[in-house]
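INTERNAL AUDIT FORM
Audit reference: QA-55
Scope: verify that the stored structure record matches its stored sequence.
Auditor: D.O.
Record contents follow.
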Amino acid sequence: MPRAQRDLSGIYAWIGAHSSDAALAWYLGLRDAIGTLRNRPGRCPLTPEDRRLRHLLYGHKPHVYRIIYRILEKPRQVDVLHIRHGARQEFKAGDLT
């Protein structure tokens, strides 16, 4: 989804992935983790904010990111809606637009 694409671009810039091999490896790991949702999207818990959404946690404290997504049964697909640092306040439904 467009919002998640903007989030990824912002994370890439924020961590300096363009100039650090370690940051780039972490970023690529984040992208790979998101890609695994295609095969087993139901493995992650529901979000406390909205029980129609799920979230995947990536990273280690204090650098944990939440990948917030929804599963669409027909067509069978996963929409990643938002990627945010875990220390940020809980999101509201309006935050996902």
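Auditor finding: record pair retrieved intact. The chain has two helices and three strands.
Action required: none
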